[in-house]
Each structure stands twice: as structure tokens, then as C-alpha cells.
Amino acid sequence: MEKSYASVFLLLVAIISCALAKDAGKKETKETPAKPKLPQTLSRGWGDQLIWTQTYEEALFRAKHSNKPLMIIHHLDDCPHSQALKKAFAEHKDIQKLAEKFILLNLVYETTDKNLSPDGQYVPRILFIDPSLTVRADITGRYSNRLYAYEPSDISLLYSNMQKALKLMKTEL
Hints:
- With 173 residues, this protein is mostly helical.
- The chain contains five helices and three strands; from the N terminus they run H-H-E-H-H-E-E-H.
- The protein has helices spanning 2-31, 56-66, 80-91, 93-99, 155-172, and strands at residues 70-74, 103-107, 125-129.
- Helix 4 (93-99) runs parallel beside helix 5 (155-172).
- It is globular.
- The mean pLDDT is 85.
């Protein structure tokens, strides 16, 4: 008797599972957008042709061993200020070309290294670290209350600061 109840129960579970699977398949086809979504790259839209590092530790290692400065971009995917700066950064051909001379890392999360938030945790902020692994506190944006913040209108200052980071590296190291 128990075997027959178990068999009936398993049969019902199988029928319900098949019905739900068919419904789920129908919903997926209706909700699938016309354009396929591209997989997320490490650039996160900041420059797909550039070489980006995956982790902070990897970026530090590569900066030290390649003798290149590290540029860290802190941002959030849902922040309108970050999105506007990302668009300006990605569309600025000179910045994209100059960025090839850096080890690049963009972070959508905070690190445990307090040196990366010398004046607070806000986004977007961009810091430069030289190959001796020193945060360049002397390379700042135009705001006194958010020293490492940049806006799309500051893109020429960012370009200038990138040049400064490269120049300081050559004269100081």
C-alpha cells in the first residue's frame, strides 16, 4: 500500500515538474530581449580595448613588476555621476591612448586598504599609485572636499593628472 502511494506521489511530482518547466520555458522566450546581452568585461565600459586587472592585489603586483603607475577608478554601476564620467572617459581618445601606459583597475566595491580612501569613500574617485606602491596624494581633482573626485567637465584635468603621474614616475623613480 505504501509503495502505491509513493508511486502516485512521484508521478504527481514528475507531472507538475514538467508542467512548470514548460511554463518557465515560455516565459523566458517572451522576456528575452531582441539584442543579446554581451558578457561583462573587466573594463565595465571604461575602455574595452584597454587591459584591465581583475583584483587590487594583481594590480599592485603588476604595477611594481612592470614599473608602470596604477590608476584605480572607484565607481558604482547605478551611480549617475559614475556613469557620466565613464562615458566621458571612454569617449576621450587621448585618455584612452594614455591609459595604455598604466596598470588599470576599476572597482565597484571598496577595498580594505585605507590608503585608497584617504578622504572618504565616495564615487567616482580616481587615485594614482606609483610603482613603489605609494598612493600619489599630490595628484588630485579640483574639489577640496572630495580630493580625488572627477566629473565629465573635469576630463581635461584628469588627462593632465594622468600625464603628471607618468612624468612624476620618471623623475622620482
